[in-house]
Amino acid sequence: MTSNTLVRAGQFTQAARQGAYIFIALALPRLGLSRAAIGEWESLIFIGYLLGFSWTSGLLQGFLVRMGELNEPYASLFAHRSIGVFTLLSALVLLLAAGFHTPFFRLLQLEDPPLGWYFFFVLLLSRWPAYCFEQTLLLTGRVSLLLGFAVVNALSLILSLLLPLYLGYDMLDAMRFLAVYAGIKLLAIGTWTWFTSPIVPERDPGDYTDVREWGKISAPLIAYTLVATLAVAVDPWMVNYWSDGDQATFAVFRYGVRELPFLAALISGMTVVTIPLIARERGSGLDLLRHQSRKLFHYVFGLTLIMMITADWWWTVLFTDTFAESLPVFRTYLLVVGCRLVFAMTVLTALRQTKRLYLWALLELGVNIILSLLLAPRYGLLGIIWATVIASYFHEICLVLYLRYRTKTSWRSYADLRWYGLYLIGLFGAYYLVV
What we know:
Oligomer: single chain
Helix content: over 70%
Mean pLDDT: 84
Distance between the termini: 46 Å
Order of helices and strands: HHHHHHHHHHHHHHHHH
């Protein structure tokens, strides 16, 4: 199976999951929910991000590196064990969050816990192990099973939440249906993992060397993404602080800072394949990353420019007049797209140059906080977003220079800078014309 096929399969899987959440966001205003009620759902999404992004991202990147270093059947055995580790860690994180939910929600500037948060925690308990499950299917060549799972998962998520609302149930009842779906999903993943785990006769069942090595690889990545999570969390915290925890204002902010459709899916689907390849064969892996990223430039920057210029025509059609105020926030946040397409972090991870990355994330956090405090009083939500844009570009420049310093790997070896520079100038030019 070719690398291009695996990349497309990974991208489809991520796009299906992201597409489900986009569809939900479009449907909720049309089902009669108030902006405050939608704000509570968006608060739950944000809480899930805070609780899970740092450790799941760090472990998943370390998982990719370790899978690139192992041969079969050891790779498959390690992958199955990893799903179990993800499940146990997910349960531990959620138990701690449930036990300390009062100070946790107070820290987030939320006066009351969002509606149905305990049902949403069941969804998180199934979502996080599913990340490792999907990558296992992809890297072990089970593409058909992966695509089937992606479709069923996306449709089940949409139907379990939206169908009850359409039939007249309230949001709390819909969250109960969502929890039932999540429980079935977790059971299915656990059953598959248990019954398909390979048996390696010469391997001691109590030997967890691979898992320990995975932990060593992932520890600095977790530290980095933890700080990066805090950097992202600065914006919502600032919004809640600035608006005194008003859920309607938070909803305006959240609808404005949505990523470009399927951007995360396209990037994640590519890095799932390129990180193991760079870890095994540096030259071939960098060539694949450069080739695939150039394709992304054409799609992502092209779509971003179109959305930036035409947003006045379609924004309220999609999100209704309820979120008309989110449009300037959306346009400003689109500028972050250029940061997502640098990929220095991808190469650093594959080459195991991760021990001091958290320092660069701390620097980005400091820049973001200082700029937010300076700009928010004068420019409100847009000031908070501009602080994020500036800090994000500063961070990516630091990573590019750090990669060159540590490994002598030039930016040109993994990116087509001619296309990147041309598109980036066009993006900021378009923003200047429409604001």
